[in-house]
Design a protein that fits this description.
Blueprint (H helix, E strand, L loop, with lengths): L1 E14 L2 E16 L2 E9 L1 E4 L2 E5 L6 H11 L5 E4 L12 E4 L10 E4 L10 E7 L9 E10 L5 E10 L5 E3 L8 H12 L4 E3 L17 E2 L3 E4 L7 E4 L2 E2 L9 E5 L8 E10 L2 E12 L2 E5 L9 H8 L2 E7 L4 H7 L7 E9 L2 E10 L13 E6 L3 H46 L7
Parallel strand pairs: 5-7, 21-23
Antiparallel strand pairs: 1-2, 2-3, 3-9, 4-5, 6-9, 7-8, 10-11, 11-12, 11-18, 13-18, 14-17, 15-16, 19-20, 20-21, 20-25, 22-25, 23-24
Keywords: Membrane, Signal, Transmembrane, Transmembrane helix
Protein name: SRCR domain-containing protein
Length: 432
């Protein structure tokens, strides 16, 4: 796509500290090249010495100087060239042959009658990248590679890039600590998912990122928030390199959204004649496995609700701080999403306004796993046990009531006999 037009430009060019303005018409072309939009601007340059303004000759002006001119007048990401592909015009009665080898702020010039013998009139072409991103909270994988897995899911692996203040993507250095929230943000923009992990799957070669500028990187990047709506990320951009290379992140789609909650690494145990199943509740959100972090922000009734969702009738939470927790956590898949702050009312549990993603590192290494002990609804021993328990409790209650009544009657009879004796022996002290 190429669009051309004629637009006036007010060109500011600094020569010996003097600011000169010149209205000039130039051709601008918006064209699509290598997947990135850019604006091409061509203009002539004039200089002023001792209050005398003249055109500038091309002789002695290099592409490096043209590049600085473009960056000073438009965008730091602009690239400039000396060009002869466009028509030039004489605007002044004199011209200058200049030398900007020491920088464009101090360019000594020699006045000449015209530029015919000095390389012709100087024309500079600037290729200005139109911003490819507008928000510094945007972060994604650049030039990712897809890998299918036997289960039918897939991985998307690449180098994360963030939006710089100049409107282009810059790679994030491997020295940056990319935690759970950062991975959620990266994967949400990349595959509309929320699960992933640092590094690449075994045997996967990660291609280099697609970048406009290879000398700008981000060595500071972090995210805050607990839900998609309030997740906010920010990073820096500096002209430098990444000594240890770029960061690598893998996003994943490894489970079905219709996946029912199960108990991961479940174990069975019989206690007081009742069969229990113990495990870590696990379900699927946006294509990645999810669990609830037992960080003290959830209601105690959550155990019952989680057991119900896994197909059990009864259930309770167990302590995360046990050798059993370590056993159950072993073999956990990569890229698990952890949630927290669930409030319960009976069997109904839901998140409050602050519910969302957990970021405590202990949630991700097995130290704060939510472990439940559930009784199977198909186990009649559970139902019978509960029924018998209720009957026994009823019988015991009746017996206690009968005993209390008998004791009360005995005590009452004894007190009556003693009172009658007093009436018989001491009529003087009878109190009605």
């Amino acid at each position: 796509m190429k669009v051309t037009g004629v637009i006036p430009i007010l060109l500011l060019f600094l020569i010996n500290g003097y600011v000169n303005c010149q209205n000039f018409e130039y051709n601008n072309n918006v064209h699509f090249e290598d997947g990135n939009f850019s604006l091409t601007v061509v203009f002539q340059v004039e200089a002023t010495y001792n209050s005398v303004t003249g055109d500038v000759c091309a002789n002695g002006v290099t592409n490096d100087t043209a590049n600085l001119m473009c960056q000073n007048t438009s965008n730091l990401q602009a690239v400039g060239f000396v060009t002869t592909d466009y028509s030039t015009f004489v605007f002044n009665s004199v011209a200058y042959s200049i030398d900007c080898s020491s920088g464009i702020d101090t360019c000594p010039g020699t006045q000449v009658s015209n530029c015919d013998s000095y390389g012709g009139l100087l024309a500079v072409k600037c290729v200005i990248p139109i911003p490819e991103c507008y928000s510094q909270s945007v972060v994604m994988l650049s030039n990712p590679v897809n890998t299918t897995i036997p289960s039918g899911g897939y991985y998307v692996t690449g180098h994360p890039v963030t939006c710089s203040s100049s409107g282009n993507y810059v790679p994030i250095c491997n020295s940056v600590n990319i935690g759970p929230l950062e991975i959620i943000a990266i994967c949400a923009y990349t595959i509309i998912g929320s699960g992933g992990f640092n590094g690449a799957p075994s045997g996967v070669t990660v291609p280099p990122p697609t970048l406009r500028s290879s000398d700008t990187v981000s060595n500071q990047f972090s995210c805050s928030g607990s839900t998609y709506s309030n997740l906010n990320c920010s990073g820096n951009s500096i002209i430098s390199s990444c000594p240890n290379g770029y960061a690598t992140v893998t996003c994943q789609k490894v489970c079905d959204e219709d996946y029912y909650a199960t108990l991961f690494n479940s174990q069975t145990a019989t206690i007081d004649g009742i069969s229990y199943t113990i495990g870590i509740p696990q379900f699927c959100i946006t294509g990645t496995y999810a669990r609830i972090c037992n960080d003290g922000t959830n209601s105690p009734e959550l155990g019952l609700a989680l057991c119900n969702s896994a197909g059990f009738l009864f259930g309770e939470l167990l302590s995360s701080n046990s050798s059993l927790a370590e056993t159950l956590y072993r073999g956990s898949p990569q890229g698990i999403l952890y949630l927290n702050r669930f409030l319960c009312s009976g069997h109904n549990c839901q998140g409050d306004s602050s519910s969302g993603f957990a970021s405590n590192p202990q949630c991700f290494n097995g130290q704060l796993e939510t472990i439940v002990r559930c009784s199977n609804i198909k186990s009649y021993a559970v139902v019978i046990g509960v029924t018998v328990g209720v009957l026994v409790a009823f019988v015991v209650t009746v017996l206690i009531v009968v005993i209390l009544v008998v004791v009360f009657m005995v005590i009452r009879n004894k007190r009556t006999h003693r009172h009658d004796g007093l009436l018989t022996i001491n009529d003087d002290i009878y109190i009605d």
